Amino acid sequence: MACGRVGHPPTYPVVMSRSHFTLAALATSAVAGLDVVGAQAFGSLGHGDFDAALLTARDGGHWIVRVPRSEKAESEQSADLVALRALSTGVRTRLPFAVSSFAGQVPIAGTRAVVYEFVYGTKISLGDITPELAASIGTAIAAVHALPTSFVVDAGLASHNSVDGHRAAVSLVERACATGLVPIALQQRWEHAGAESALWQYPATVINGSMGSDSVLAASDQVTGILGWHGLRVGDPALDLQWLLGCTQPGATDAAFDAYGAARGQIDRQLRQRATLLAELEVARWLLHGTEVRSTSIVDDAVELLSALTDDAQTTLGSTVSNDTVSLTTDELEILLDRSERAAG
Questions:
Q1: Looking at residue 12, what DSSP letter applies?
Q2: CA atoms of 184 and 242, how far apart (whole Å)
Q3: For residue range 42-81, what is the model confidence (pLDDT) as tens digits?
Q4: DSSP secondary structure code for residue 159 in this structure
Q5: Residue 12 lies in a domain
Q6: What is the pTM of this model?
Q7: Final residue of a domain: which of 85, 119, 153?
């Protein structure tokens, strides 16, 4: 979901895309003894935040080499490496899916090429998520949340408890409402949620912190791997689940939350309701990003999304967040989460 900010000038030198042959040569310099016999572009070279190639070694193994094309990508890559190192062999044995491993790095043009072990599976979209796959995703996320928080703390990664999460949400609402662009119905809904203490009584867990449909690799409706660990921290488990509210296939969202609950137990009774609120607050985050970078197009876009949230004010927004209904369509929710990740970069 990563790409450059909309309406914000780049702060990273524009570079020509590197061919998969160049990336393969960098990989052999980064990993001692790596004998590459095949290479192909991975993703769209010259677009997005990374140049990447899929490599085949003589022994049949596969590797990914990536070179960041933006400051945001370089920062994300650095955070991802810290997280992958924190995910020790012992921690990984607790997970029912594969996590990539760092293999080596080499400097290139002021940044670095990083080589990882390839994780097998097919990337998915929200529309691909069947109830069966959704259940597997719910179980996979539950396994992440069941990990001991000590390894995250020991790695020096961020740790936020429920009080921190509550304060952050209330502050976000206050700052968004201060723009004068949040409709009254939505403002009241969010303020009511902020004042509802039961909504914020949750046990903080290990979270991936940047979960989305493009984080998941799958095969035969089962999760085979999870990518992108740059947001690894202790925090609100609802952050890893909010994106599942946008599943398109009937029963998929319910299957994900049911499987998660079966694996974790009813230790967080307001999880889905809080996930609903956090998904809606991504609109507020996008609005604030637009005001911060003084982008009229982003602000207008955010206002349009706010309008979509308030279209059904007499029903959905007339109730509280406890009804766990997001007014955005699936496409709007997926696009919004993409925009919000850009805003966070």
A1: S
A2: 24
A3: 875 555 789 999 999 999 999 999 999 999 999 999 999 9
A4: B
A5: no
A6: 0.85
A7: 119
